Amino acid sequence: MDASAGLRTTLASYGIGYLAASINSFADNILPNSQGASRATQVYSGQRPTYTTTNWLFITYDLGRFGIPDGQILVQGVAQQSTWNPGGPAKYGVGALTYYQTMFDRRVELKLGLLHNSFEFVGTYIGGALASSVFGPSASIPAQGGLDSATTPTPGIILRYNFSPFLYTKATIQRAVNPDGQVAEVDANRSGFAWRTPNTGVLYLDEIGYRRAASRSEPMTWLRGGAAYNSSAYNNNQEPGTRASGNQFYYFLADRQIWQASAGSTAAYRGIYAGMSVMYAPPRLNRFTQYYEFRIYGIGLIESRPSDVVSVVVTDNVFSKDLVEQAVDAGKMAHRDSKAVTLSYNAHLSRGVYVGIGVSYVNNPTSVTYVATTGHALNVLATLNLFF
Fold first, then answer.
1. What gap in Å lies between CA 10 and CA 179, rounded to an integer?
2. DSSP structure class, residue 162
């Protein structure tokens, strides 16, 4: 018997479960224009060889043994380090600490505590994880809007209502992540237990979705959309040097299985998928104000490799028009957006071991302003993900 399987069985008899994960990524721009960048001057992932490692340990405790059906306590620890701080600020501490409970015949689900909402909302971890932003994790519109993550857990509550097995709505009220980004949040809250950090307010978010897994008779479908309001004091792009509250963001994402490689079988998930994302945040309070993505990806296209994923992802990040106009007025060179195309292949090598390789061409890899030598980026990407 596998030693870890034996340990899991023993712990499960006491109501304890665990999962350990190590998520490792590498990016390097192989074009000559990136040569000469140092740690102090690096402004995007891959401008110099960029390595990030994030390590998680999840421990759960089942309260059913005490007569609380579906009651569960989750503790998550996180250790993160990166050669480029904005790409993954150094963090060692709690990643989540939550209590989960279902009610009313599982129609209602409740979670409260220190939340890790980037796994709960939006659903970006699908069909091409290698297509991450060269601007770092704070550049995504939900993260910029204050949504918390394992690196930046914050206190809050999640309520989910299941209209049917496929149709749901869920909402969160959480302390928002620092409006100046993940680095500012981590610097001010190393342990993860701080009730608030400077300029933070409350994030209110509601998402409505329809999610149906692939089956013998139906292809996979996932539609979700959400709207959020944040009371934090953000930098006001229209009046530099001042702050303003009332930030918002909106999103809609759709993914659909367009061909089943094993229709009618238990491996109905194998096939080709297409997806798209549209996100918006007002330019007055945000650096990244529009996001568009189209993705096409295949899962298990090779019968002998049922867990491998190949993807092509096209993205467009649009910058705040207020910041672009200010840069131009100041005599700087500025661009309104950054487009990228990423091709990647993720292979399941063995139990708990996943390796990914890819290449990403990025037009305008710097945010808003640039210099004549910036050029474009052709990032070679690699990931190694381990699960125990």
1. 44
2. E
Residues 6 or more apart in contact with residue 239 via CB below 8 angstroms: none
CB 248 within 8 A of CB 232: no
Nearest to 47 by CA among 143, 136, 137, 138: 136
**Where do the domains of the chain lie?**
20-387
What torsion do the CA atoms of 171, 176, 177, 179 make, to the nearest 10 degrees? 120
Write out the two tokens for 77.
């620890």
pLDDT: is 9 or 348 the higher one? 348
**301, two tokens:** 């296209």
pLDDT in tens, 212-250: 999 988 999 999 999 999 999 999 999 999 999 999 999
Give the separation between CA 195 and CA 188, rounded to whole angstroms: 11
Cα–Cα distance list, 97 to 58, 271, 356, 375 (Å) = 10, 36, 30, 44
pLDDT averaged over the chain? 94
Q: Which two tokens stand for residue 3?
A: 């030693």
CA pseudo-torsion sign 362, 368, 372, 373: negative
Contact 247, 214 (CB under 8 A): no
Q: Which residues contact 32 (CB under 8 A, 6 or more apart)?
A: none
User: What is the CATH topology of the domain spanning 20-387?
Assistant: Porin (2.40.160)
Around Cβ 161, how many Cβ atoms within 10 Å? 13
